[in-house]
Amino acid sequence: MSRLYDISQPLRADIPVWPGDTPFAHEPTWVLGEQCPVNVSRLVLSTHTGTHADAPSHYAVEGRTIDAVDLACYIGLCVVLDMTHAGPRVEPGHLLPVLSESVERVLLRTWSRFPHEEWRSDFTTIAAESIDLLAERGARLIGVDAPSLDPEVDSALLAHRRVHHHGMAILEGLVLDAVPPGHYELIAPPLKLAGGDAAPVRALLRELEQ
Question: Where does this protein hold Zn(2+) 2 (predicted)?
Fold first, then answer.
């Protein structure tokens, strides 16, 4: 059986979130016991908590909401590229030596070790020109282990806007520490959240048959 890599963050009470965004909470509402036959919980979270898919409506007024995106973008062949040397921004020059002539989905590892325990503002971002290059090679999806394609303090959102221009999908907050660079099958559809600007995903990579 082909190996599966779970590249999702665990959702937990102390998960770091974007500064000012909604803290994650998971609380029991019913508790299994003599007076109750089941456990039931209540969740409070941002649509951008942990590993998630951005909808175009997150950054474009006319953009689709997450329940209307093309799910085919999130399922299929992908390539994982090691960009741990590329900070503070992944430029086309970083990608060209390792990028295939044709790609559908590209996941970029930028952290040497994913910062599960703290919020880090110094994450590696993606140059708008790099998005253009990926689109030229046929990319339908860009995925990153950072919390955003663009810097934390940035209202221009140049990378996001190039993604929207090319009709690509976005995954953010992936955990790629244990994944060797190479080709895989990606399985990461977002939750069908009506009108959502983003949604959590359980992102998986499956090794390809040799």
Answer: 54, 160, 172
